[in-house]
Here is the input.
Amino acid sequence: MSIWGSLIGGMIGFSLGGPFGMLLGSLIGGKVSRSSFKSFAQPQQVFALALIVLSAKLSKADGQVSREELIAVKDKLKIPEHELDQVGKIFNKAKEESTGYEPYAKQIAQIYQGNINVLEEVINILFYIAEADGNISDQEFRMIQHVSQLFGLSDAQFNGIVEGRKSPDKLNPYVVLESKPDDNLTDIRKRYLKLSKEHHPDLLLSKGVPQEVIEESKKKMRAINSAWDQIQKLKSN
Here is the structure.
């Protein structure tokens, strides 16, 4: 069953509170009583909601919403046709409201506190959305970078995400593994094993990353493996 249609239908707004609760509450209005809401939001629903709202904010970061970006939100996040109406309501409301992206980013950071790998995946997929029109504008990049900072990610973690989105022949393996060329192989291997564990698709699924976007998450894992292979070859020469 798709997670997207349950964002409003599942009535998770007031159980979240904060800006997300206010956003969904404004969509539902007075037609639904608070007693109708679930006590807790499902992790996959929270992640999906975060992506939709931040994607909406990202789509106007450079002052324009391109057709490609709108298509990306539908296609890249695998939103089925029959769910577009509900998801579109959330996207448009988030795009039109005056609230900036910062309060949402701070709430996401609180929700996923202690799960930095999940927060990294939000950043990873925001880049995926921004790439839709073939070019990430400076404004989009700065917004994603600021969201990363609000999430509490380090510069090394953010740079690792950016580098990991490159093709294997163009990425800097040391940046991907958050290491330096003069680090010894043993220390780099420890970093590789740690990152491999944190970004394993099964772990991400268990932490709330939806199945609908896990294929994009797998690319990070492939970049980590490719970087380790390259470093082993470099160190053996």
